[in-house]
Amino acid sequence: MPSRNSINKPKDTINQARKRASVSRKRAARARNGEFAPARSSEASTSGLPKSTALALYNGASQSGVLTTKTLSKKRSQKIERNKKYIARRKLDEERLLIDAQANAEESMHVDDEVVKQVEEPKKSKINTIKDALWSVIEDRSTESLIVDSTGEGTTLGGPSFF
Amino acid sequence: MYTCNTCSLQFPTAEDQRVHMKSDWHRYNLKRRVANLPAINEALFLEKVSKLTINEEEETPRKEVKNNKQITKKEQRRIEKEALLEKKKQLLEIAKQNMLKSYHEGTLNETNKVITSEKKETIVKEEEEVAKLSISEESKEEKKDEVENLTDDQLAERIMEEKLKNKVEIPLEVCLFCNKKFPYFDACITHMHKNHGFYIPEQKYLVDKEGLVRYMGEKIGLGNVCVVCDFQGRSIEAVRAHMLSKNHCRIPYEEEDEKLEISQFYDFSSTYDDISFGDDDGDWEDVEGEDVGDDDVEEEEEEDLPQQVSYNDGVELHLPNGTRVGHRSLARYYRQNLRPDQVLTEGQGTVIAAESRHLMTIADRGALLEKKRIWKNEKHHQDRDDRRAAKFINNQPHYRDQLLQ
Amino acid sequence: MELAVAPQDQDILLRTKNVINESVLNKYRLAGQVSQTALTYLTKLINDSYHLNQGPKLTTAELCLVGDSFLASYLENVYKSGVNSVNEKGIAQPVTIDVNSVNGGFGPEIDDEESKNFQYFEIGDIVTISLGCHIDGYTANLSHTLVIYPPGEEKDGELRPTGPLLGNKADTIIAAHIANEAVINLLGAALTPEKLPSIFNNNVGSVVTGSLIRQIVDEIATNFKCVVVPGSRVRRIRRFLAGQSEGVVAEKEYKGVVWSEADQEASLLEKASTSQELITLSDKQNLRGKGINQVSAIPTDDFVVTPGEVYIVDLKLASIAEFNEVGLVTLETLDGYTGKNHDKDSINIKPSIFVRDFAIQHTLKLRTSRQTLNKIDKTRSVYPFKLAHLSEKFPLDLKKLHVEGPESIKSDIDLVKKEIRNARLGLSEIINHHLAATKNVQVVKFLPLHHILNTANPTGTHGFDAANPTLPGLELPLPRLGVSSLKLKALLKKNSIVIPVAREQSTVVLVQQGISTGGRPELLRLTGGSKTSKPSWVHSNYQLDESKDIIKSLLQLIKLGQDKRFGINIRETQPVKLEHV
């Protein structure tokens, strides 16, 4: 830690640390004196109170696992609550359906027709059709493998002289 | 046979013609001719005149009444004073015109170079009478409404009469300022130049020196007006005293109207060739530089046709020597230094003619400017943020004590 | 500010001045003669130094400069004074000497350091000489491909090559020659359409159309396993519009067949096409005319060759027989930086030929650039130029060169070098402001098709290569695959193989009846022909497949061209004997 007189002293850090220390000192003193809440101007005032009250205090589920310092917002907890309701209902429906199906199956043991799935070929874009066509040209060419040299005597131009 | 081309008339005698030339009708027709309008006959002219006078009679009193309601007494007095001054000025103007007229007549018939003062006086008087008549007519009309005005008019009349009475004819051989007499005219001029600083400007182009001096003499002798400033003395002595004390013994030749005032005694036509358009057409600006190429050709032609007149096509004045003179109001355009038109060779022309590209132009200059400003602003902000952020970067990996360095 | 030419002037410049009459024909003829003579001169120089071992061995840059000097000094003395004097005459195509795979534009400046690895030709090289000149805008361009043979043997008191050139280079030379002759015969047949073989008649009647020209050239190329290289064209030229600034200027009423990568793509698709859909897709015409505003500036094949026009037949062919795979023949532009490494063999050339773009106006900042631009505008008309042309010492004194040897003009060449250096400084600003466009040096490359098909092309058709302007309507090299020129350029870098190219270019005038000397309509061949552009001794294993109808008719047509009395009347401009110059 650089000295206070250093040119490079981390001013912000020092200031924050000092502030934090003084605040915590005060808080500790209050706690020692048995005052758990600071003096307030009125009953309704919430100043100085921790911002979030619900410290992983969600009670919907059994407390298992680790305790985290993560807080849940009110909105979030409501959402979880709501989703749980939906899940329960879905489960109920599924069970009922399963029972119905079983009953049906028991009633008439018919064999299902095999469902022929229409596999939809993705519609080719114009460029893809062209690409396919060109690939086919390449394949044709490589199957030729042997280049047939031209028969006949070929062509000769010019005569035996420089220019 | 004596004729008048303007009014298309014939006269049996020269006397008749002269009388006609002096008539208002003829003058009116002259003005019409200048304005490119056909001449009118006498009956129509008289009708017009009568109409005008009636209108004036009708309008003037009403105006007076209307105005009277709002004007305070003080202002009224001031207005009256102004009116009086205006009339005085008119009278002076008439006097000046008379002088010029006599002068012109003098030049026209060269035998009568010197006009007798009596003759001049008669003409002057005639004119004055006309003026007086008109003034008195006016005053008569005003009589009905106002009493005070009457006295003013009379005052003006009286002043005019006094002036004419006091009129001093200054001969050419007499100094304008100290009334000294000299044996001949040139000696007088040198005296005035040496002792009073009476410098005659642009003597090179001066054609009628005597006329100029006579005109100045008239100004002093008849009008009792200082040649330089607006001062008007009660008598010729007062004016002379003023001029001598203030050293106002020169011919003012700086302002345009000053130049115009005496321009008739000068002849600048010899300077037209080298285009110093000087004083009698100060309103025109020279734009010779515009077509240097044309000049050479046209000047050559000009030698054959010296009588070619200058003409004005509404925008530019074309002088006979080929120079074009543009109006001053367009000076900023003439002053523009535009790139000369690119002359394409045949090959370049062909390529351009066959070209069908449309080169992109900036669609909206304003929008582009706006966009550029925004970009500049953004860059500025970014730079500023960078600068601020850089303040808190500790680039030094290890502590180094300054004292130990 | 945009330049414009009044409509009546346009009519004069584009139509009246292009009507073939006696004086115009004379100018064309003289221009052709000058070009022909210059070609014989250059051929002689190369022949002397490489085959006969006489005279000095000039480098490519020197050959170019000497060739340009020849053209310029010859032209100085024609149409000089009197009633017939013309304002503009000069070099229409600076001498370029392209070796093997170089497609065009290789005419290095005398002080070019980058080209010093390519100063001399090797045995077995094929060398294309291109040049051209114009008198009053009436232009005659030519190109001819020669072969550099191994040392010859003495036979009949003359040094002769030991044997013909074989292999793919020979194929390309033969194909280019035959195609050129065939097209010229076809153009000649346009004068007397009744002599056109009946198989060439199309729905319009017996006329020579652009599509017919393309069909025949493509047919000849496939017979010799060649591909028509993109940029080849058979086009009508006009006064001052000899295709010198294709890509720069979008020329109105473009009339000509132009080969591009799109045509190769189409023919490949034709091979594969089974379904109707693909056939319509491979139709060559339907892709033209998109993306540009002026329809008439876009080259199409549906035009009819009419008498009284002048054509340039400029065909470049490259053989793909050696490749056992399908691919695309395309061009790669060499900038001064391509492949800049320690590889001595990679061609690394700065472009040295530029063409002025008059539509763009800009006031330059540097004094040297303004001076250079002034000089260009004053002396160089609308045709491509090299910096050496702007020099005071240009044209070089060739008499001195031949009488006293190359040492005598060394000081002149040094002066030219110095002036080039000064002009180059100014030129960079001119180029940066697009007042002039560079004529790029390009090499012909073979790109296997599977590389194109496998490539990811997320940007699609966006992105034109501004450094390589094309004719309007041909901006997209592979329009059906949607591969842009930039993508193609990127693909070329790694996967392509350089292939040799042969080029034959000639200018022909279709003289109508009444104006020609014989009274019959005749085709006046300004450049090329048996005298100057005689093919070198080459042999190919391939030949024209005479079982095909189209080839049969073509051979019939060529026979007609040789028949002086009843066939197509073709007259060639002869070069002046070098001793007289």
TrEMBL record, chain A:
Basic residues composition bias: residue spans: 17-30
Region called Disordered, residue ranges: 1-49
Any Gene Ontology CC annotation: cytoplasm
Name of this chain's protein: Ribosome biogenesis protein ALB1
The keyword Zinc is annotated on this UniProt entry: no
Tagged with keyword Ligase: no
InterPro entries for the chain: Ribosome_bgen_Alb1
Classification of source organism: Eukaryota, Fungi, Dikarya, Ascomycota, Saccharomycotina
One of the GO biological process terms: ribosome biogenesis
UniProtKB/TrEMBL annotation, chain B:
Gene Ontology cellular component list: preribosome, large subunit precursor
Protein name from the UniProt record: C2H2-type domain-containing protein
Record has Nucleotide-binding as a keyword: no
Superkingdom assignment: Eukaryota
Coiled coil: 62-98, 123-153
Keyword terms of this UniProt record: Coiled coil
Species classification: Eukaryota, Fungi, Dikarya, Ascomycota, Saccharomycotina
Region (Disordered) residue spans: 279-304
Record-linked Pfam families: zf-C2H2_2 (PF12756)
Residues covered by the C2H2-type domain: 4-26
Taxonomic source organism: Wickerhamomyces mucosus
GO terms of biological process kind: ribosomal large subunit biogenesis
InterPro entries the record matches: ZN622/Rei1/Reh1_Znf-C2H2 (IPR041661), Znf622/Rei1/Reh1 (IPR040025), Znf_C2H2_sf (IPR036236), Znf_C2H2_type (IPR013087)
UniProtKB/TrEMBL annotation, chain C:
InterPro entries assigned: Creatinase/aminopeptidase-like, PA2G4/ARX1, WH-like_DNA-bd_sf
Keyword entries, A-Z: Cytoplasm, Hydrolase, Metal-binding, Metalloprotease, Nucleus, Protease
Gene Ontology cellular component annotations, sorted alphabetically: cytoplasm; nucleus
Statement: the UniProt record of this protein carries the keyword Nucleus: yes
Molecular function via GO: metal ion binding; metallopeptidase activity
Domain of life from the UniProt record: Eukaryota
Biological-process GO terms, alphabetical: proteolysis
Compartment(s) of residence: Cytoplasm; Nucleus
Family of the protein in this entry: Belongs to the peptidase M24 family.
Record's function text: Probable metalloprotease involved in proper assembly of pre-ribosomal particles during the biogenesis of the 60S ribosomal subunit. Accompanies the pre-60S particles to the cytoplasm.
Protein name according to UniProt: Probable metalloprotease ARX1
Organism, scientific name: Wickerhamomyces mucosus
The organism's taxonomic lineage, starting at the top: Eukaryota, Fungi, Dikarya, Ascomycota, Saccharomycotina
